[in-house]
Amino acid sequence: METIEHVPPREDEGQQRKAKNGDLSGRDAKSPTPDHSAPAPPDIAVDDVSIPGSLVIDSSLFGAKDWDYSDYNSDAYVKAMQYPRGCTILNCVLTRRSAYQWENGRRYHAYQEGRYPLPNDETELDREDMKHHEMMLITDFRLHLSPIPETPDKVLDLGTGTGIWAIQMAEKYPNTEVIGIDLSPVQPEWVPPNLVFEIDDLEAPWLYTPGTFDLIHCRFMFLVIRDYPTMLSQAFRTLKSGGHIELGELDFHPVSYDHQFPPNSQVHLWIDLLCDASARMGFNMFIARQFKTLLLEAGFVDVTEEILEVPWGGWPKDHRLKTIGVWHLEQLFMGLQGIAMGLFTRMHGWTSEEVEVFLVGLRRELRDKSIHMLDHV
User: Are 311 and 321 in contact (CB under 8 A)?
Assistant: First the structure.
């Protein structure tokens, strides 16, 4: 995990920059809101329909042009508002089934189709919340490690997912504007008033004003970000003087605590296959090992690295580590099929049946209590 404090250049200091720890920050009321009025794709006819209450709906978002939105209580309007996971017109993006696609029985995002290889259905969203709780256990229930101000102005959460981290940040800092961005509109409906979710690709050019954020938070994104140097450059530009960025990632290199890995380990084979498949898509599963170098190259200084233990399973005697290990293994079991299915069928050419057969042996090895695996974040 990397923590950094960033000080953008001052006029009297040339290009001097300082950095420490990073977290999220929302946008100042005076900062312009990013322009999301980009034209629709050429193959979609945009038909803006006005609705009473000064709200304008772009019907192309629903994949239809012939619905009547003249009445809030109309059947068409109610039908249009059936969001997959609670997204509202005031704090999220209007969407419908056209926001998703299905493959091998799992639901995936449709915006920037194929950009993210994992599913975004309810099973995976539940796992994302489990990963958040696991991370809270690992960090002793600290939402951030960076020494941000008591009342930061703006916090940005990259790849917000279910929005659970952003929601808790907004609740902890009620006077802070918190922004969560993600490719999928899967965030909940009822959120703190100082929180907004935006559907966007974090590797596209950022439209935020330079010097906007006190904290930028980025966690578990090795299957999302292909170009870390460019992302960090954009983060550097949009952080305030003295702002922070915080990166958190699993090393994904479990070692045997007592040297008892079986020969031809299924866990090692699974990781090798994931590494190869993700590399073909342009991702680096072991990017955490390069965080410090990448941050320094982006212009950050005072880079702090904290490495914390993550057992795979409940084998440790220490109660805290045992709890972390149980949570880690449970969320892993929940995600094995989703993690492997898309990557293995798309990149390795496996059938869904071949993936399922392979996972049987992998689950058996992960349940073997004689194997004591230890990883780090």
Answer: yes
The pair of structure tokens assigned to 154 is: 């703006």
Q: What is the 3-state secondary structure (H, E, C) of 336-372?
A: HHHHHHHHHHHHCCCCHHHHHHHHHHHHHHHCCCCCC
Output b/e per residue, 234-254; b: 16+ Cβ within 10 A. bbbbbbbebbbbbbbbbbbeb
Over the stretch 209-250, which tens digit does the pLDDT of each residue have? Answer: 999 999 999 999 988 899 999 999 999 999 998 999 999 999
What 3-state class would DSSP assign to 126? helix
- Mean pLDDT of the residues in the chain: 77
**Pair 196, 129: CB distance under 8 Å:** no
The answer to whether 328 touches 310, Cβ cutoff 8 Å, is: yes
Place of tokens 């450059």: 233
Task: Report the candidate in 204, 256, 220, 245 with the shortest Cα–Cα distance to residue 371.
Answer: 256
Which one, of 138, 140, 136, 108, lies nearest residue 123 by Cα? 108
Q: Which residues contact 21 (CB under 8 A, 6 or more apart)?
A: 3, 4, 5, 144, 145, 146, 147, 148, 244, 245, 246, 304
What does the pLDDT read at residue 307?
Answer: 94
Q: Worst-scoring range by mean pLDDT, 34-38, 272-276, 278-282, 287-291? A: 34-38
**pLDDT tens digits along 56-103:** 333 333 333 333 333 333 333 233 333 334 444 333 344 444 567 776
Nearest to 225 by CA among 130, 117, 113, 127: 117
Q: What pLDDT is recorded for position 276?
A: 94
Where would I find the beta strands (DSSP E) of the chain? 2-6, 48-51, 55-58, 100-103, 106-109, 154-158, 177-182, 195-199, 213-219, 239-248, 255-256, 301-305, 309-312, 373-376
Task: Please measure the distance between the N-terminal and C-terminal CA atoms of the chain and give it in whole angstroms.
Answer: 6
* CB 118 within 8 Å of CB 223: yes
